[in-house]
Design a protein that fits this description.
alpha+beta; four-stranded antiparallel β-sheet; 43% helix
Length: 313
Amino acid sequence: MELTRDQLDAIAAHAGERLREARAHGGGRYTLALAGGERLTLLAFESPAAAETALAALEMLRAEVDLPLPQVRAGDAAGVAAGVPWALVSELAGEPLSAALPRIPDEQLYKLGRRLGETAYRVHRLACARYGPLVGSAHAVPPADDERSYGLARMEAALGAAEARGLLQAAEGAAVRAWFDEHYQPVGAQAALVCGGLEPEALLVRQSGGAWSLSGLARWDRALGWSPAWEHALLFDAAGANGYFSLRVGYGNAYDQATRRAYEQVREHALRPYRALLSLERLAALDPAAPEAARRRAALMAIVGFDGGALSA
C-alpha cells in the first residue's frame, strides 16, 4: 500500500502535527519525521475492520510500556482523513527479522526468541471477554463464550470451504470432523489476547554494539481472543524454515518457563488441534491447482491420521 505525500500530510495534520519527511518500509508501515523533531510510525490498513482490530488490541496493551509494543498516538479506522484506515504509533525502529536473519548468529537468534516468548506471554496475560474477534459483528465466525464452540465453528467454516472447492474429498472431510470432535477438548476457561501477527516480516529487530534486540511487533490487525496455543502454531508455521530453528527454541523455552499451565506451553500434544486447524484454514484459502495445496493437505491428513481408509488416534 503506497500513500501519497498529500495523504501523509493529512494524517499528520489529523494528529495535530506537521510532517517534515516520510519513509516507506513496505507492508503499510511508514516512519514519519515531524516538524518538531519527533519520529512516529504510521500503520496503514487494508480495511476499517483491520484498523479497528489493531487499535482495540493496542488499547488493551497501553499499560505494557516496558515491552517492544507500539503505543497509539492517533487513529482513524474509518479512513476519513486520508481515504485509508490508519494508526499513528510510537516509532517502531529496526528492520524485519526476515531481512536481518542472514546477519544474526544462532546464539543471538536464540536470545531474540526468548525475548519474543517473554513478550508473547505478557500479551497473553490480558484477558478477553469472549473467544474470537475483538471488535465488530460482521464476521464469518462470530465470537463465542467457550473455546470449543469457537474453534469448532472455525473448523466447520474452513472445512466447508475446502470441500466446496474440491480441496478435500467427502471421506477426508468426515475424518477431519471426527478427529476434531474427539481431540479438540480445550481446558482453558478464559480467552487470552492473541497477537496473531508474530511472523518474521512483522518482527522488528535492530543491532547495537554487536547485540541484536527485538525492537517491535508491527502487526496487530489479526489480534483476537483465543488460546496462546493458536499464537504458538501461527509463529511456528510462519517461522518454520530451518534458519529460524534457534528462534523457535528460544521462544518455546522462555514461554514454557513463564507459565505453569500445561495447556499454554509449547508442547506438540497441546498444539496439535491448532496446527490442524491452521493447516485446514490455509488449505481452504488456496487454489486447488496451487503446489502449496498438496503440501497443506498432506500436513492436515498427517495430523488427523487419515490414510485413505483409516483414522488413527
